[in-house]
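Recap from last week: sequence in, structure out.
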Amino acid sequence: MTVSLDEVGEVARQRGDAARKAATRPLIRVVGLDKRYPVRQGEPVQALSGVGFDLQDGEFLSVVGPSGCGKSTLLRIMAGLDRATRGEVLLGGEPVSRPSRDIGIVFQQPTLLPWRSVLENVLLPAQMQRLDRAHSLSRARDLLELVGLSGFVGNYPFELSGGMQQRVAICRALVCDPRILLMDEPFGALDAMTREQMNVELMRIQAEQQKTVVFITHSIPEAVFLGDRVMVMTRRPGRISQMAEIDLPKPRTLATMGSASFASQCNDIRLAFSGRAGGAEF
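Predicted structure tokens:
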């Protein structure tokens, strides 16, 4: 069978088109999420309504919204820890229906096991998934060095400050090398100075590890400082009120927070949050 040069060229073109489509395909696609919770009496509680967005590989999405608007529910569904009433979450084109090693999660509290050392706490997910110990041990040590805790591998949680414990929790979430990191107000319990330092640290970790991050916070300055985009949600049932692009060069430093551009973009988010932008109601 003879194949012409034109046919060869057409096959190459089709392969090139497929590669370009794969490269531009969102890493995460959230499609029409609704979530209702049954109650003992009365109508079910509608937590989320029609939430949908795309997230590219390596992007940092900050999420802000009033308390009780479904932010944590959204994160739990994205992590495969809860099921949507309607809609779906796709990771790399595949539905997320249960927890996966491709998804790391950091909660509001570090929830470290007090009887395990720092290194043993970081290794816990790898042990549960029965990953190669030598490789996991090497990665755990590298991560602890990355966050400045290489001298504390044998310490126990009670010997660490709050900020150090959260660094351990971040390492634990990254030890299985997930594609996406979900973070639910991880710095909310820290003092202001430690929180700012952790913001800078997280931005550095995300850049070095090249992770896609979804970060929930109640702090508008924190959302703007960290995010490539900020997603503003309405009161319950949670909907997307605004998806704002953040026009600040990276890497960002604490000096960024003193710039006029930073203040202006925080104010834009604050207006959306208060319901005076785009007709949103909160």
